[in-house]
Amino acid sequence: MTPSGDAVRFDWRRGGAAAGALVAVLLLLGLVVLVAWSNGERDKALELERHAYDVTILTRSIDANVSRSEAALGRFALDADIKNSGNVYLSYWRLAGHQIGQLKRAASTTRDQQDRLAELQAIYDQLGAKFDNVARVITAHQGDLGISYYYAAAGPKADPPLQPALHAKLREIAENERTILQQRMERTRFFSARADRFTDYLSWLGLAVGIGAILMGAVAIQALRQFTYARRLAENESERAEVLEQAVRDRTHELWEANQALKAEAAEREAAEAQLRQVQKMEAVGQLTGGIAHDFNNMLAVVVGGVDLARRRLNGPRREVMAHLNNAMEGATRAAALTRRLLSFARSEPLLPERVEPRQLVGGMSDLLDRTLGERVRIKVDLAADTWPVYVDPHQLENAIVNLAVNARDAMDGAGRLKISTANVKVSANEVGDIRPGEYVRISVTDTGCGMPPEVKERAFEPFFTTKPVGKGTGLGLSQIFGFAHQSGGEVGIDSQVGKGTTVSIYLPRSSVQPPIRLHAATSRMNEEERVPGARILVVEDDPRVRTSTVEALQDLDYDPVACASGEEAIGIFDKQTFDLVISDVIMPEMTGPELIKILKEKRQDFAVLFVTGYVGESGSDSLIGHELLRKPFTVGALASAVATALQSSELPPTAAAAEAR
After folding, report:
1. Domain ranges of the chain
2. How far apart are CA 174 and CA 167, in angstroms?
3. pLDDT for 514
4. Where are the transmembrane segments (predicted)?
5. Rounded Cα gap, residues 457 and 467, in angstroms
6. In what order do the strands lie in the sheet with 416-427?
7. For strand 354-356 and strand 390-392, is the pairing parallel, antiparallel, or unpaired?
8. What does the pLDDT read at residue 32?
9. What is the rounded CA–CA span in Å between residue 312 and residue 457?
10. How far apart are the C-alpha atoms of 148 and 158, rounded to whole Å?
11. Pairwise CA distance, residues 11 & 654, whole Å
12. Environment class of residue 387 by beta-carbon count within 10 Å: exposed (0-12), middle (13-18) or buried (19+)?
């Protein structure tokens, strides 16, 4: 061939080789892109599959937490004294609400699934409102009413049945996610198969490219050189990456050590705070114990001295003996009053609540306050016309207002302006102390006295804490008001400025109906016309001295008493004899008084009941509702009045022995 022809053939070969190489490279790049795309789609499908599993697990977790919350609320309703049950219920319920929020963010974004999530949220909110109402009723110590509310909200006959609807909606959401999961699993399998197929294609093409690389020696050598150079660069980058990774590890370790140090500091601070709280508690207990010991020693000195002097003068003039005995009785009465005030502070003293109109009660106290405070104190009464009614013990409320007025007078050194006002208010949670949200009546007493510094205001409600001179106060006034307010479901707040005056406000919840306990005073007078001579009475008292004195007093009152020391013994006697009245101590070993009366009422209904107690905190006042209650220590006159009232209020016919005695 001519030189020109050789040149043309050489160019054609080079062009063909370049074109073949270019086609092979393009095919290789295309397959690499397809493989990468297929692997990416497979990874996305796997991620969506794991996401669907997470949503399913989340629905089961919500279902379990709702069930745990309901169980904790049920335990709390059965026995409100289980302190942790209310906290467990609230923790699980809030955790379920938080997980529902996570479910909204994690679930499928389809319209049907979002509608189901909205319905689930609505059912959760409605059921939460019912459970919160049950918890409030239980916390208010309303006994069987809390159990009734619980069954109405979560029982099998709940209307509407929100809890089954909640479980059903969770199952529906899980079923929808499982359907989506099946679709995503199919998609995963599809892209996995495609990625494998493209990988096979890429392998065959790589083989072809290898063969072509052998045919193109010069290109392969050049490529090898470039590869060597690129590998050198990659090694350099790898070394740099290792250095950077080591730096990251070092920094991470430093951050971990700093985090551990912060945790240790937080633990030390928490331990110090707990120790401080314990020290404060022990200081309050020590102060309370010292105050009780001081006052009781004074009162017991009067009782012991009076009894001892009366015993020494038994053969002397009657007037002198009676004077000493009266002094001893006065000391014992003061000791009993102090005990009642302490029980009121501890919120263990039973109240006699009834519907009270604060406007009428405060308005009717004007004369009493005028006589108590004196003429130098100007009293202004500002009563709202539409003040809501409250359900409290009216005598305790009057005592609280009088105590506040007397404290205000002392803060003003006996002269100044005193304002008593009432108002209807709506408060939020913890707006005043530990108050719960709702509607309250606020009764405020404002003075123009010296005011309280912060350190005094902080300790104002502590028992036996007082800023008055020795002999001017016991330090139980504000603490008793605090106990009365809390026992009535309310709260007490203090607003004071030094040099300008103090305002003490009692917050009492708006009226709610609740049956009272009929409590007899420990020093009531005997009414001869109310007696039922000859009535047979079963006396159940574990203390032998109290039992003996009670029986002798009943015999002096012309009753026919039979005494026993325990509930089991009382049941045996009750089965053999007929009684008009059962007098039982509330707190006894093995069987309490309310438990005994419940058993006896199952046997017969035709007898009256009188409970005797000095402390009802452990037995609970709900079990005493509907019965007469006599508080220890009591006089013979108080016992006679309580027995007569119990016999007459029972409206039961007397036994044959009582009828003959009449």
Report:
1. 3-215, 354-509, 518-661
2. 11
3. 47
4. 16-37, 201-224
5. 11
6. 377-383, 416-427, 438-447, 501-509, 491-497
7. antiparallel
8. 74
9. 50
10. 11
11. 137
12. buried
Q: 């000859």: which residue's tokens? A: 534
In a 10 Å sphere around its CB, with 0-12 CB exposed, 13-18 middle and 19+ buried, how is residue 44 labelled? Answer: middle
* List of E strands, 337-468: 354-356, 377-383, 390-392, 416-427, 438-447
Instruction: Examine the pLDDT at 6 and tell me if it is beyond 80.
Output: no
Residue 325 Ramachandran class (φ > 0 left, ψ -120 to 50 alpha, else beta):
alpha
CB 605 within 8 A of CB 613: no
The helix or strand, by DSSP H or E, that contains position 175, with its residue range, turns out to be helix 162-215
- Domain made up of 518-661: CATH architecture: 3-Layer(aba) Sandwich (3.40)
* pLDDT of res. 528: 47
Reported as a single tens digit per residue, the pLDDT across 394-409 is 878 888 888 888 888 8
DSSP lists the bridge partners of residue 447 as 418
Q: Encoding tokens for residue 647?
A: 């016999």
Q: Are 55 and 114 in contact (CB under 8 A)?
A: no
Return the structure tokens found at 552: 């002798």
Strand order of the sheet with strand 560-564?
518-520, 628-631, 608-613, 581-585, 536-540, 560-564
**Single pTM value for the model:** 0.38
3-215 is classed CATH 1.20.120.1730: yes
How far apart CA 48 and CA 167 sit, in angstroms, is 25
Measured CA to CA, the distance from residue 147 to residue 80 in angstroms comes to 10
- At residue 632, the pLDDT reads 79
**607 to 263, 301, 401, 618: CA distances (angstroms):** 66, 42, 40, 26
pLDDT at 498 over 50: yes
Pairwise CA distance, residues 566 & 616, whole Å: 18
Distance CA 521, CA 39 (A): 87
Pairing of strands 536-540, 518-520: unpaired
pLDDT at 571 over 90: yes
Contacting residues for 112 by C-beta, under 8 A, at least 6 apart:
176
The Cα-based distances of 433 to 20, 310, 413, 429, 444 in angstroms read 87, 51, 29, 9, 16
Tokens of 572: 């045996």
pLDDT digits (tens, 9 = 90+) for 277-293: 566 556 555 555 655 66
Largest alpha-carbon pair distance within the chain?
168
Torsion of CA 187, 189, 190, 192, to 10 degrees: 120
DSSP state letter for 627: S
387 and 359 Cβ atoms separated by less than 8 Å: yes
CATH fold of the domain at 354-509: Heat Shock Protein 90 (3.30.565)
